[in-house]
Amino acid sequence: MILAILRGLLGLAVLVALAYLASQNRKKIDWTLVGKGILLQIVFAFLVLKVEFVAVGFEWLSKVFIKVISFTQYGTDFLFRSFITNEMEPGVISFAFNVLPTIVFFAALSSILYYLGILQKVVYGFAWVMKRLMRLSGAESLAAAGNIFLGQTESPLLVRPYLNSMTRSEMMCLMTGGMATIAGGVLAAYINFLGGDDPVQQLLFAKHLLTASVMSAPAAIVAAKILVPEVDQFDQTMEINNDKIGSNFLEAITNGTTDGLKLAINVGAMLLVFTALVYLGNFILRDGIGAITGLNEVIQDGTNYDGLTFQFIIGYAFAPIAFLMGVQSDDIVLVGQLLGEKTILNEFYAYVTLGEMKSNAEFASEKSIIMASYILCGFSNVASIGIQIGGIGSLVPGRKSLLSSLGFYALIGGTIACLFTATIVGMFYS
After folding, report:
1. pTM (two decimals)
2. Which position among 103, 123, 257, 408 has the lowest Cβ density within 10 Å, counted as fewest Cβ atoms?
């Protein structure tokens, strides 16, 4: 336990140092804010993992979440029951007929909760705590809290009236928060990926992914404020924008369903394309370069990989980061591969890979699986830079140049934030 904590603290120190080196204004970093943000994450992780009544409460919340997910099955059965035959592979059924409908359902549910004002109240509560504790502006507090539940293009709607006047540091905080967190709809999908049909496993990963979503909010703030410290005066006002709420209950359901359908189609298309591209890349690397140079045999003899592949390259490239975070030595290449897939491709593809690795019992330690689930719990990938510039830029066209200049830094910040949460959880997980 003590060794894990010390190793985790070393990992945190390295991550903070990396963020410091990448900072645009090192002299203006608010180290009090950084310290409070990291402490908030540590306290939350300790409470969830080590304090029984808190753990029980979170398990209850996870059970509620799992129960809500189960309702999706009724709609799925109604639409697709006739297609589920022995002629289709179980994996196809699982993804196409279980995961994607879950995304649609949760998008609609989020829209309903927004219309009823429930989601805003929860977001406001989280925002109030972070604003008071970390001395943030009202807008960035709301955006950070909103990212716990909403996606990287939805949460900016909460602070739409403030977008034109937000400082450079506030905008960085907004973008980093979007990179460091995921939306509720895909969260449910990831629980399905990792938990499968096992209720115990579903509950386990629901608990950890919900914890990751909450912890990533202050983690994103810490990373953002190191990379782009605040140097300007900011607005303390904290009021939630109610645009896109819908004029009535049915419109809210319709809007949410339509948005969810777009997201589900987008996710399915992305997985199809990225999987095909990875196989194309591996054909060139393994069947071309690796076969010609003899590297395939060398890699096969010395590693668990079948030759020179995309997975092999990114696994070993990111393995040192996994080691510093406290991942068991036997698993650092696997976790490194997942981090690389998430950053270069997207987290959805990486979660599919994690689910396959888990099913195939490739990990030496359960702790590595849990830490990997935290590492992947964020939209911090290259494509998200374009998504944010396009999505947020459509709300404030005059600030696209600022968004473009911060895009890569937001990717770094979001990645570091996810690594923060995973490292801290690794300190207490046993």
Report:
1. 0.85
2. 408
